[in-house]
């Protein structure tokens, strides 16, 4: 019984390191190949794979079988060419030795993909996977840890939070209990992971850099941003104060509407202040005003009116707010009596006002933006006109060539007239000949 003991090498490590061409067949040839590969790269696991191939062949020989030892390698160009090279070499071995079965020796998952190629040509009795007991990664673990500890950024990112956790947990466990300590620690770890995951440190650094540049360049937006932050804090405080005045808040909806109703005016003022500072910066820098920047204050005001109108509608429906009373007004002989605005009327007034403000903003933004666009278009068109006047236009060049240097249009027309006259004379001659 003939058994083919074949060692598969898909990436052609054998040929690359020894310069030999596969297949390598025979006990002595494979034994010499082990020495060549070992001298070329002692750390290569292929040495162990070749030795395992010899061991399996020796074991089969002891069982009175006739083993054929062979090493088959692929190609380095591509995976397809490597698989075809292995298939071609297997066909040659099977045609020459006609084995009854095969034992495949591999040392990696990459080489294991060649097993179906062998199975399609000869019966495979066994697949021997060689696993090196002492791997290089395990050997170098100490050096990896040493390099890790030498990196200051990695130490601060990983070791410092772990150390703080190990110090804080026993203190919190003794002071508040194990469950409370574990909850506090996991909360802090979660916040830290979110902080790193969303790159909050980079965002804060960028904001600080922009603020420093704005301070050095003397931009007005620095002051308006500070004022906007102050107005935002006032709005949040006003909203919280309005929620605290509710007698019996039930659920979340009414407190949220109360918070929005009281805080939206201040928040809208903050947004308007910030956008006004940005607009002043571009005016001072003499930059063209963008329509989006001009439209932003109107959009902010419109959104504020909509939110204020809807929140007031819900609060008035829930009798948290009273109806809106308009006092009596009079100018000369004209006078208007006081009247009460109901919830639906209040909502309609705010929505209509928001629509008017937004349309006004779009109109103003498009007007200024359209003027800038026309200026830029005219500026872009001037070089083209100069370029055309320079004579690079093919039509102009052809006309100049036709007329010659310093040619006069009248002369050119005259030339065309003369051509016409000559054509007419030729036609008259043809008629007379006829």
Using brief descriptors, characterize the structure shown.
single chain, 434 residues, alpha/beta, 3 domains, 5-stranded mixed beta sheet, two-stranded antiparallel ribbon, 17 helices, 9 strands, 71% helix, elongated, disordered C terminus
Secondary structure layout:
Layout: E1 2-9, H1 13-18, E2 24-25, H2 27-40, H3 46-62, E3 66-73, H4 79-97, E4 101-106, H5 109-112, H6 115-119, E5 124-129, H7 136-139, H8 141-150, H9 152-176, H10 178-197, H11 200-217, H12 221-244, H13 253-284, H14 291-317, E6 324-326, E7 329-331, E8 334-336, E9 339-341, H15 343-392, H16 394-403, H17 409-433
Parallel strand pairs: 1-3, 1-4, 4-5
Antiparallel strand pairs: 2-3, 6-9, 7-8
Helix pairs in contact: 2-3, 9-10, 12-13, 13-14, 14-15
Overall residue-averaged pLDDT value: 77
Number of self-contained structural domains: 3
Largest sheet: 5 strands, mixed
Count of helix runs:
17
Distance between the termini: 109 Å
**Proportion of residues in β-strands:** 5-15%
């Amino acid at each position: 019984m003939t058994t083919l003991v074949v060692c598969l090498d898909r990436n052609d490590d054998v040929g690359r390191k020894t310069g030999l061409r596969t297949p390598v067949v025979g006990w002595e040839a494979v034994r010499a190949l082990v020495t060549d590969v070992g001298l070329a790269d002692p750390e290569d696991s292929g040495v162990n794979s070749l030795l395992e191939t010899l061991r399996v062949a020796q074991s089969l020989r002891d069982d009175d079988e006739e083993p054929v030892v062979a090493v088959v390698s692929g190609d380095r160009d591509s995976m397809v060419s490597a698989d075809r090279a292995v298939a071609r070499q297997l066909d040659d071995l099977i045609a020459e030795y006609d084995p009854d079965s095969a034992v495949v020796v591999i040392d990696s998952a990459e080489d294991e993909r060649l097993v179906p190629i062998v199975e399609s040509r000869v019966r495979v009795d066994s697949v021997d996977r060689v696993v090196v007991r002492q791997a290089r990664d395990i050997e170098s673990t100490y050096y990896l840890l040493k390099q890790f500890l030498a990196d200051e950024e990695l130490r601060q990112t990983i070791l410092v939070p772990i150390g703080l956790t190990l110090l804080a947990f026993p203190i919190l466990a003794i002071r508040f209990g194990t469950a409370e300590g574990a909850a506090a620690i996991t909360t802090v770890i979660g916040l830290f992971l979110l902080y790193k995951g969303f790159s909050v440190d980079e965002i804060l650094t960028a904001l600080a850099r922009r603020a420093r540049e704005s301070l050095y360049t003397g931009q007005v937006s620095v002051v308006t941003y500070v004022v906007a932050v102050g107005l935002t804090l006032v709005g949040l405080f006003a909203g919280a104060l309005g929620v605290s005045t509710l007698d019996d808040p039930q659920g979340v909806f009414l407190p949220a509407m109360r918070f929005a109703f009281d805080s939206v005016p201040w928040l809208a003022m903050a947004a308007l202040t910030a956008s006004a500072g940005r607009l002043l910066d571009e005016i001072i820098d003499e930059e063209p005003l963008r329509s989006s920047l001009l439209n932003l204050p109107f959009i902010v005001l419109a959104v504020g009116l909509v939110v204020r109108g809807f929140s007031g509608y819900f609060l008035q429906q829930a009798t948290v707010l009273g109806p809106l009373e308009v006092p009596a007004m009079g100018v000369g002989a004209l006078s208007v009596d006081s009247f009460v605005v109901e919830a639906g009327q209040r909502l309609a007034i705010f929505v209509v006002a928001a629509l008017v403000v937004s349309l006004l903003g779009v109109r103003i933004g498009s007007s200024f933006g359209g003027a800038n666009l026309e200026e830029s278009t005219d500026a872009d068109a001037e070089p083209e006109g100069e370029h055309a006047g320079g004579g690079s236009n093919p039509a102009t060049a052809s006309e100049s060539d036709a007329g010659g240097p310093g040619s006069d249009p009248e002369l050119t027309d005259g030339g065309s007239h003369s051509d016409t006259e000559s054509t007419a004379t030729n036609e008259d001659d043809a008629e007379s000949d006829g």
